[in-house]
Write a structure and sequence with these properties.
Chain lengths: 399, 379
């Protein structure tokens, strides 16, 4: 135990001594979380800029315009009055939606001639697109309902009778788990898991490469300390720091970004523990095999985007080809992000999370086994000829 | 003079080729990214949202209603369930996204003109599913209530024509512009691949200065008498040409093979990409000019490159971000580039807007190169 703590102490000194590494371990995760948190803090996409091109200018067309103006989701841009201006506005980003009411609309409605309002929305960004489509349908549904109610009132029906007729069959919609359609609830914690993955993996994967570059790895290899103790000692500070960051980022998400973070605390802790263990083990394993810190930094930095996209956290796994889903299942970030959402957003109990716990547990065991089984024999790398940045060195400014 | 510049450029290409890690990243990174993202989004449109119906009435009226719901756009009926608990269970497991519960005595209530409340449940935990499912349910709601309302009025002795008139809804047609099929692959694949490309390029640019000053050959270069300006300009030119060379196959695959939309002209888009390639190169050069070593330079460059896609407003819109963040995001060339993809590849917003975007990126470039030049000169 003493030996492990000594190695951990030595590693801590390295972290504190190297300013950039210190910042990376203790500040960058929170910095990234704050940045992404600020990005998604509004959470709900509102005030969609819409233009009403009213070519009819009748009572009915003005009522439609008023329905959009009164909707909390839309912000009517008043100075756009023609179709051409609407086209231009949609192109230059001033508008994300438009409503075109054709000429003689009211008259043709009264005559039951085929006529229709054109609702346009910007499909080039599907976050705008999907939400605007939903909002447009909501406005038209509400408008039609109020129109019908007015008509029935004109026929002499009382309020209660109108309600009874109109609600003969009513379809009440309940949105579970994220009733406000909050993008912060949906995305932010997934991004937090990727931050922890990225920074955690990068920090720990530099632990051996740094020794190789300083030529002190030989000391570890020749010391009468078993490999597992070297792993335990060198990984311990990162494991603790990663877990600290996990807790800190979750607190930050709940306290400042107001992300829904419900569910069982022991489960949240268990998932965090296993995720941390996989990352630490995998990072150490990478570090034992990587030639130098530059190569590790380059490769690890590129992982986060593909890992997040492949996980099915945003685009659903049901619509991703099977071979990609199999690939995604080999990654801890997939299990963690999806499992974490099940616990915190859907508030599910352990029976639903068991596959995630099993997968992460298995990966943790594998990662640790691979990490502790590094060979304690110094094999000098063969000369690499004219290769650059491939050996145990990389460009460092001269002093 | 020109020969010297060309020799430095040739040397730079040789150096990049000899750096095996970087070579792999530059040659394969963005291409693998494009293929992977295209495979992920190969379904392209989110259809067939799994739905289940709990018919507690089991009457002909309820079956008719279930039939109508199952035919709603984008919904796919995957289960007919016996109880609400079964539905809850499937939604918890994530096997069903939309659940419809038709209550007991539904047919009797409708026949007697009493209110019958059908429940639609949507799993909101994945917003891509939820917004699509919600839009589908909204359409169904409108049709079903109108049909039931007309029947109720007829039952009360109102003429059918008059009843239909009461429910004569404002007919509206929806037109999603620039991406008519709401194709998710069109929206994301190219942007994500270019995000990987810009990260790979940043990594390479981060070696620009420290890759020389950190090598023992730096003394030799200094002693050779070649001006630092000429040396680093030639190196940078070679790197930027390489960045453009690796984006070409990406564009050929994206626009030629995968048929992703490009509504502006290809030369204009390449010019726009070139401005961005120069901008990210300038950021990498700046990082590499003050970093103590190559690892720190890569970290500095990537600390900007990694979150820049989220900050660029390409997915979650800039307009929805706080004002201070919108201003901060505009300092990054990635914001102009990814916003530009939306404006030019999809909307063909015109040369005026493109020149504005290019100028913004070049202004950032001037600041970064200027700062890097000062740092190099002080050495």
């Amino acid at each position: 135990m003493r030996q492990i703590l000594d190695i951990a102490h030595y590693e801590m000194l390295s972290i504190f001594k190297e300013k950039i590494l210190f910042l990376m371990v203790f500040l960058v995760p929170l910095g990234y979380a704050a940045l992404f948190g600020a990005t998604y803090v509004t959470a709900i996409l509102g005030n969609v800029p819409v233009a009403i091109v009213d070519l009819d200018d009748s009572r009915l067309s003005r009522e439609i315009a008023a329905a959009f103006a009164n909707s909390p989701h839309f912000k009517v841009v008043d100075d756009i009055r023609t179709y051409r201006e609407l086209e231009e506005g949609m192109k230059n980003g001033r508008l994300r939606a438009g409503v075109v009411i054709p000429e003689n609309f009211e008259q043709e409605m009264a005559r039951h001639t085929l006529t229709r309002v054109l609702a346009i929305y910007d499909g080039s960004n599907l976050i705008w697109g999907y939400n605007t489509r939903k909002y447009i349908r909501e406005v038209f549904n509400d408008f039609s309902a109020s129109n019908t109610a007015s008509y029935l009132a004109g026929l002499g029906y009382t309020k209660n009778e109108i309600r009874s007729i109109m609600d003969t069959v009513s379809l009440n919609t309940e949105v579970w788990y994220n009733p406000t359609f909050s993008y912060a609830n949906f995305l932010f914690l997934g991004l937090v898991m990727m931050i922890l993955h990225q920074i955690g993996l990068l920090s720990v994967s530099l632990t051996i490469t740094r020794e190789k570059e300083r030529k002190t790895w030989l000391q570890f290899l020749s010391a009468p300390v078993p490999a597992w103790k070297i792993f335990a000692g060198k990984s311990l500070p990162y494991f603790v720091a990663n877990f600290f960051n996990y807790a800190l980022l979750l607190w930050f998400a709940a306290r400042f970004i107001h992300v829904k973070l419900s569910g069982s605390l022991p489960l949240i802790l268990l998932l965090g523990f296993l995720y941390d263990l996989v990352i630490t083990g995998a990072g150490f394993f990478i570090s034992t095999h990587a030639p130098n810190s530059l190569q590790v930094t380059r490769y690890v930095m590129l992982l986060s985007v593909p890992f997040f996209m492949i996980s099915g956290y945003t685009w659903p796994a049901t619509h991703i080809p099977a071979f990609i889903n199999y690939l995604a299942r080999l990654l801890p970030s997939t299990w963690m992000a999806l499992g974490f959402r099940q616990v915190t957003l859907k508030e599910l109990d352990i029976s639903y999370i068991l596959p995630h716990i099993r997968a992460l547990g298995l990966m943790a065991v594998l990662a640790v086994l691979l990490a502790v089984n590094f060979t304690k024999r110094l094999k000098p790398r063969p000369e690499s000829g004219t290769e650059i940045n491939g050996g145990a060195s990389y460009p460092v400014r001269w002093k | 003079m020109l020969n010297q510049g060309l020799a430095i450029m040739r040397r730079e290409v040789f150096y990049l080729c000899r750096d095996r890690g970087l070579r792999h990243i530059l040659l394969c990174g963005s291409l693998i990214g494009l293929l992977l993202f295209y495979a992920i989004y190969s379904a392209q449109v989110l259809k067939d949202i799994p739905a289940a119906i709990v018919d507690l009435d089991n009457s002909s009226a309820s079956r008719e209603l279930a039939e109508k719901i199952s035919k709603a756009e984008y919904l796919k009926l995957v289960a007919s369930l016996e109880s609400y608990d079964d539905l809850q269970e499937l939604i918890k497991q994530g096997r069903v996204i939309v659940g419809i519960v038709i209550p007991e005595n539904f047919a009797r209530d409708v026949a007697l003109g009493r209110q019958a409340r059908v429940l639609a449940v949507i799993d909101g935990s994945n917003m891509i599913y939820a917004t699509n499912a919600s839009a589908a349910v909204l359409t169904v709601t409108r049709t079903i209530s109108a049909q039931a309302g007309v029947s109720a009025l007829v039952a009360r002795g109102v003429q059918l024509k008059q009843a239909q008139e009461a429910y004569q809804a404002i007919d509206f047609s929806e037109e999603p512009w620039f991406n008519p099929a709401l194709n998710y692959a069109y929206f994301l694949v190219l942007a994500l691949a270019l995000n990987i490309w810009q990260q790979c390029c940043t990594l390479a640019a981060c070696l620009n200065v420290i890759g020389e000053r950190g090598m023992k050959s730096w003394l030799q270069i200094k002693a050779s008498g070649i001006s630092k300006f000429k040396f680093f300009t030639s190196k940078s030119l070679a790197q930027i040409l390489i960045f453009m060379a690796i984006v070409l196959p990406l564009y050929i695959l994206a626009f030629g093979v995968f048929k992703l939309p490009l509504n502006c002209s290809l030369p204009a888009f390449l010019l726009f990409t070139l401005a961005f390639a120069i901008a990210i190169h300038s950021i990498g050069t700046l990082a590499s000019s003050f970093a103590r070593n190559a690892v720190d330079a890569a970290r500095f460059g990537m600390i900007i490159a990694l979150p820049s896609f989220v900050l660029s407003g390409y997915t979650w819109p800039l307009e929805a971000m706080p004002a201070y963040l919108q201003k901060a995001a505009r300092i990054l060339p990635q914001t102009w580039f990814f916003q530009g993809i939306n404006y030019f590849a999809f909307k063909d917003a015109g040369w005026n807007l493109m020149s504005h975007f290019i100028l913004a990126m070049l202004a950032i470039t001037a600041v970064c190169y200027g700062a890097a030049a000062i740092l190099i000169a002080r050495d």
